[in-house]
Amino acid sequence: MDVISLARGAPAPELLPLEELADCAAAVLAREGKTILTYGSGAGYAPLRALIGEWFGVHPGRVVLTNGSLQALDLLARRARSQTVLVEYPTYDRAYKVLLGSGVSLVTGTVDADGLDPASVDAVLAAERKPAFIYTIPTFQNPTGTSMTLARRQRLAAFAARRDIMLVEDDPYRLVRFDGEPVPALFDLSGKETVYMSSFSKTIAPGLRVGWVIAPERLADELADAAGDTYITPVQLGQAIAYEFIARGSFAPNLERVNAQLKARRDAMLAALGKRFAGARWTRPEGGYFVWLELPFGTDARELLARAEGVAAVAGTEFTATANFVRLAYSFAAPDEIEEGVARLAAAA
Length: 349
Hints:
This protein is about 45% helix and about 15% strand. By secondary structure, the chain is an alpha/beta fold. It has two domains: about 5-15 and about 250-349, Aspartate Aminotransferase, domain 1, CATH 3.90.1150.10; about 40-245, Type I PLP-dependent aspartate aminotransferase-like (Major domain) (Aspartate Aminotransferase, domain 2), CATH 3.40.640.10. The longest helix is centred in the C-terminal third of the chain and has 26 residues, at about 250-275.
């Protein structure tokens, strides 16, 4: 029996624009191979920095390109060694590991159906020393798929400004929206004073390893220096390919195609859950990659997944949540596979 993966938070192969990217790679190598295949600035490929700066209305000097946005978080976390960082509960498992591995102490604010609750942040920080920063994924959060409401974003941005706490917004799923209306980023609500991270992993291809961080200029310079000290130069070839892909006008139609396919997968998952998990609850995301399944209290998702045959998913304990949660990813499997995968999971419940 082939295993159906509802665990992988990655795009299915058919979502990747393979032929177009191959053509972009050939073009940039022919045009700029002698420069992009050698060492470059720790801040990354200048044309792409300028383009991202234009998108977000900031000077390119504030943009640092990284090997995926997780690398940006790692660079920020190193600055916070032996300090406290506030994260969401539950939170992205890799971010959790990066932060702990950097030697920070973690405190948590609660995520519910409306995203991170600023009241929980306020309550925690009333009893804690000032954190080095607050880390949040406000849009289609990993693992829950929830999004922070506008009112909460406004309150959190105002709270961070009032307390002079750095706010780090991880936003890789913002453009992967197929329902509802976009909500302003915390970055925009703060007057572009907060730290903003994202990547092209969900909108073009994760294997390019092209992420970025926008920060106040002095911090951006510090991060670029730290990047250079860590890996000398980021993956300029991947950055140049991403730039070429955008400059050709391929980004918007590719995103429309990807979102249409992801919507079909999300719809298949919600329909399958409605059919198979009558005694459970789950989120209904308007975009992104994930549904957060809450099983009846007392259920141990780890045991359920161990019993399930031919399907993989991720237990909530990986994200610091209680054991009765499961993260289901709909980005990698086809709609018919999702339906079958949920059926296999339900058979083990």
